[in-house]
Amino acid sequence: MSNAKLLVVGELNVDLILNDIHAFPQLGKETIADEMHICLGSSSAIMAANSAALGVDTTFCGVVGDDQFGDFILRELQSKSVDCAHVRKLAARQTGCTLVMSYGQDRANVTFPGAMNALTLSEIPFEEPAVYQHLHLSSLFLQKGIQKDIELILKKAKAAGMTTSLDLQWDPAGQWAFDYARCLPYVDVFMPNESELLALTRAGSVGGAIEIIGPYLNTLALKMGKSGSMGIRGDRQVTVPAFEGKQFVDAIGAGDSFNAGFIRKYMAGAGLEECLREGNLMGAVNTTAAGGTGAFSDRQKLHETIQAFLGLELNPI
Ligand SMILES: Nc1ncnc2c1ncn2[C@@H]1O[C@H](COP(=O)(O)OP(=O)(O)O)[C@@H](O)[C@H]1O
Ligand SMILES: [Mg+2]
């Protein structure tokens, strides 16, 4: 890779993941989970950590509380070679946590946002314009301090010469207050999954949704779970199938790992299909270990997993 830098702006929290849960939780009752993992959570952090694992020079901009979860997050990011110079500890805040109840391909999450609400435009290092090539932003609706200024943030990134990508993620409030007509023209790669795209556009089908946002899109990278992904750029539309995996553990963070793979290729100037294929590959790799970063932690194992999916000799990453 070149020395091009990725700047990820977003939320930071801890995931407490429960797997193999015997039944759905019910008020007044108790059920057992056979597995628990405590790991780096948040879509943005998983994307950043896995980008760094893939060899991209990655800086994170975010805030945590001055507490044990905050220390854990900083240690995790640093151990994955993410530059944390722009992660600030806020004494008056608690670091957030997500309880993830994982049921195979899907999961039910409860999030305490904590410090993530405190991240605002003023924390983003726009004064270092020559340093960063690309800005990735995720989980807009969880970050009230960012949400209100999203149009300005995207404009500033473009004015600073960066390319941009946005993964809105789900809106827990169901309001989907994102002005796509105003904002998407400043987003180079828009990266929703199917249900998020439908909720945002209030369309009944993916085709209908694409008609609605089409006029404002640069590139769409639509994540479709086991069906892979679809890309749209100008008049071109391409679907790339998912990689078949045998070793499925959970799909937590698959979309964030897809983003890491896609953006790595995008920053290197690859074409749409190659970016989508790399996204699918990293999404599939993600599903072979617990949580969003498990499959990316050990370099040797990561290479072996990629190799097994590709069934080919690896290009060095
Ligand atoms: N079970 C799976 N097997 C293989 N690839 C998968 C699987 N689940 C997800 N992926 C890959 O990861 C990508 C992102 O996952 P998806 O579930 O669509 O995103 P999100 O996590 O944002 O909902 C998919 O486009 C696909 O390429
Ligand atoms: Mg997602």
Describe the structure in brief.
With 317 residues, this protein is α/β, with parallel strands linked by helices.
List the helices and strands and how they pair.
Blueprint: E1 5-9, E2 13-21, E3 33-40, H1 43-53, E4 57-65, H2 68-79, E5 83-90, E6 95-103, E7 106-114, E8 134-138, H3 144-147, H4 150-159, E9 163-167, H5 180-183, E10 189-190, H6 194-201, H7 206-213, E11 219-223, E12 229-233, E13 236-240, H8 254-267, H9 272-286, H10 299-310
Parallel strand pairs: 1-4, 1-8, 2-6, 4-5, 8-9, 9-10, 10-11
Antiparallel strand pairs: 2-3, 6-7, 11-12, 12-13
Bound molecules: adenosine-5'-diphosphate (ADP) and magnesium ion.
Structural class, from secondary structure content?
alpha/beta
Mean pLDDT reading: 93
Major sheet size, sense and barrel closure: 9 strands, mixed
Number of strands: 13
CATH architecture: 3-Layer(aba) Sandwich
CATH class: Alpha Beta
Overall number of structural domains: 1
Helix content: 25-40%
Poorly predicted tracts of residues = none
Major sheet: order of its strands?
Answer: 5-4-1-8-9-10-11-12-13
The CATH H-level superfamily is Ribokinase
Instruction: Encode the helix/strand succession as letters.
Output: EEEHEHEEEEHHEHEHHEEEHHH
Query: Could you say which overall geometry the principal axes of the C-alpha atoms support?
Result: globular
CATH topology name: UDP-N-acetylmuramoyl-L-alanine:D-glutamate ligase
The total of helices stands at 10
